[in-house]
Amino acid sequence: MTPEQFTRAWHALVSRWETLAADDRKAADGLLADAVRNGLPSHAGDALPEPEAEVLLACEIEVIRRARAMKPRRYARANKELKVLRDEQMDPVEHFCRIGWRWLRSPRPDFDVWWYWSEHLDPTHDAINPLLFHVLVGRRAGLPTAPPRVAPRTGVLPPASGPRRICLYAAYDADGIVDDYVLHYLRELSRHADVYYLADGVMPHTELAKLAEVTVAAWSIPHARYDFGSFSLLATELVGWETIDQYDELMFANDSCYLLRSLDETFARMDARAADWWGMQATKMDFSRHEGHLAPVPLDEGKRFHTELEDWNPHYRMHLSSYFLTFRRPVVADPGFRRRLGAVVSQGHKELVILKYEIGLSDYLIKAGFDFETFVPDLYPFHPLYSADYFELVARGFPLLKRNFIGENVGTPDLGRWKERVLAQVPDAPVELFERNLHRVAPADKLDRTSRVHTQLNGLVDFQRRLNKKEFRVESRVSPRFDHWWAFPVAPGEPSLTGNERAIFEEVRHDPSIRKIVLTRSRTVDLTGENVVTVPLDSRAGQELLARAGQVFVRHSVDLTFPWELDMDQHRVIDVGAGLPRPRANGEQHPLSPSPTAVRRGRARPERHVVVTTSALDAMPVETRDGVSPGLEVWATGQPRHAFLLRPEEQLPADLRAELADLRALLAGRRLVLWLPAGGTRIPGLGGTETAALADWARRTGTVVGVRSNADGHLFTDLDPLLLMPRRFPDVEVLFREADLLVTDNSHYLADFLLTGDPVVVLDGADAEPELPGPVCRTGADLVPALERALAARTPDEVERYTRCRDHLVGPADDGAAHRVVEQVRRASLSDPAAPPTVRVPNGRRPATA
Length: 850
Fold this sequence. Notes:
By secondary structure, the chain is α/β, with parallel strands linked by helices. The chain has a 7-stranded mixed β-sheet. Strands 18-17-16-19-20-21-22 form a 7-stranded parallel β-sheet, with helices on both faces. A 6-stranded parallel β-sheet has the order 25-24-23-26-27-28, with helices on both faces. It is globular, with a radius of gyration of 31 Å.
C-alpha cells in the first residue's frame, strides 16, 4: 500500500470510527480491533473529506494502544528530560503520536522511526506516523522496523596517484556578500578539489563574481533547507550525479568555519587511512563529562560505545559533523546514500535538520557497514569544537575554527582572549579576518557575553549569570526608580535603534540631565552623547539598568519587547510604535488592548501607559477608539520618525548620512524603485515573462529594483536587484529619501513615503484603503504599465488625490514630534500623582545612584 493509498484508507477508517463512536462505542472499538488484527482495509471509492485533526489523533492513539505497539513506561523513562513526561502531564502514547514521532523519538528500542520513514514511506512528507503505518500495514507485509546490524567492511584507500575530489560548498550570508574569510578558505580548498558553491539566499552578481578564481561554478538560491539543502540541490540538480561520478571523492564543506592553516596535512593524513568516508571528528552526545566520561578515548573504542539512550533518541547516536566530510566511491555509489541526499526538504526547526540529515546520514552509513575515520583520532567528551578541548586540538594540527565557538558560546571561559590563544598555536592565522566577520554577523549580545565569561583569580568561572524571570520581577519591583533615566530598547527584529525611538533619543542625546539607556540586541549600536550608556538587553547590566528606568520607550508592548515581566507600577511605558490609529479588521486584536499573554497572566491593565499617535483619541473614528483600554493616555504629537524624512540632510544623524552615502554609491546614478510589500504578499501572475519585461524596462530607463528580503530578491533574480537588507540599511527612512518610487501594500510604509511627495504604486489590497494615491497593480501583467503611469507627470486630479491620501493617512506632519513627546514626558514626570515606590534593598545590595 502506497502512502497515498494509506492516507485515503486511513481517513475512511477514521470517519467510520467517528460515526460509530457517536452511537455505539462497542462497535467503534470492534472496528479498530479488526483493523489492528487484519490490517487496514483499502478504500476504493472517492476520497472522503479529511477528518478533523483531533479526531485523527484520537483514533491514532487508540489504534497504537490496542496494538500494544509501544513500551509506554520505558518511553517515558527514556525521555525523562521532557517535563510533560517526567511529571506525567501527558500520556506516553499520546506524546508519541502528537509530538514524539515527528522528533524521531523511538516508541520502543527496536523501532527506528527515521530509518523506517526513509525506507518505507516518503521522507519528504510528514503526514503519516510511521508506527501507525506499521501497525496497520507494515507488520502484515513483514517490513523491518530497524536496519539490520552489518559489521563494518574494510574501508578503501584513494588512488595512490592522489584522488580527484569534488567539493560541494554550502554558504549563507545574512548580508548577501562573499566574505573575505570565505575566499581565504576556498582558495585553499580549491588546491585540493573542484569546488561548487551554493549560497542559501540571494547574492548580487558582483558578489558571486568574486568566486570565479576559486570555484568551478557558483549559485545563490533561497531554499531555507540549511547546509544539507545546498548539498542536495548541488548533487541532484545543479552539478548532478553524472558529474560527481567522474571523481574519486565527494566532499561536503560549509562556511561555518574559519581556516587556520593549510589543508595539506589534513589530506595527507586521511589519504593514508582506509575508510569509506571520513570527517574531522566524531561526536556522541551521551559520551560527556556529565555522564562521567572525563577524557577522550581512541576512536575504535568510541565506535563500540553504546547506551540505551541512542535506541530511543537519535540525538545520542554517533555522527560526523557536516562542516567537513569526505565520501569515497563505495558510499557515493550507494543508492541509499543518494536517495537520502535527494530527499532533503525544509524543516520547521533547525534541530530537525540535524537529526534527520546530519545524524541521520551518519547513522545510516554506520549501520550499513560503511567504515569511517576521523582526522582527530579520539572520541572526545561532548563536542570538542565547542569546549575548552578545542585548543588542544589546534595544538595537534586541527585546521579549522568554528565561528559559533567564539560567537555564541557562554560555556567556555576566557574566549575573550581567543585571538591570543589561536596565535600561540598558529602564528600566521589571519585572526583579524575572522574577527571582522564575527563583528559583522555574530549576535552582538551573545558575543559580548561570551567574551566576558572568565576564570577568576580564585579559579572559579564567572559565567555572567543573568536574572531569571522571577528574580527580575523582584528586581523591577524593589529597585529605586529614576524618572530621568530613559530606557530605549531596540525593538524585536530590528538590528539597531530605529524609527520613533531613535528620533526621541536624538532629541535628548546631548541633554546631560537625562540618562539615556540604549538596550541592544543582535547588533552593536554605537550611539554617543551626554550621559548615554549602551548595554545588551540580555545581560545582567541591562536588566539592572532597565529595572531603575522611570521612562521606557517601546514599540507596541512590554510583552513583545522584553523576555521578562516588567512591574508596570514602577515604570511609565510609552508605546511609540502604534503609529497610525487604524480600525480593526473583523476578529483582529485591538493594537492598544492587552495582549493574549497579558490576559493569560491575569493582568487587567494594558501593557503600556501612553501611546504616541498622529490623532487625538477624540478625533479617532469610533471603531478605532472602541477597545482602547480605559486609563490609557494618548499623546497626539505626530510621529517623531518623520523628522528623518523632512529635515535637511545635513541635520540627520551621522550614521543615517553614512547610510545615504552608501546607498548612493550602490545606485551609481540609477533610479531606485523600492519594492516593499507586506510580508508574504505575492502578486498573481508575476512569473518569468513579467519579470523579463520588468528587467527590460529597468535597463531602458536606468532603473534598479531595491528589495528588503531574500524572498523578494529571489523573485527578481534576473534583474540583479539591490539587496537593501535591514542589517545594512536599518533605517527605512533613508531608503524613502532616496527612492524615486515605492511599490507597497502596507499603509504604514505608504503613509511615511507620501511625505516625500514621490510617486507610489499600490499593490492590490493596501489594507483596504478607500482611496489610493497612485496606480494599482493587481497582477504581474499590471506591474510595468503601473510603474510607467506612476512616473509620468501627474494630472491635477491625481495631485489632489495624492494630497487627500496623505492628509488621511498622516495628517499635519512636521519635524517637531520628537520635541513634543519629550516635553510631554517632562510634564508627566513633574505631575505624576503616584507616590514613589517603597524601596526594599536586600542584604548585600546597594541601590544605584542617579
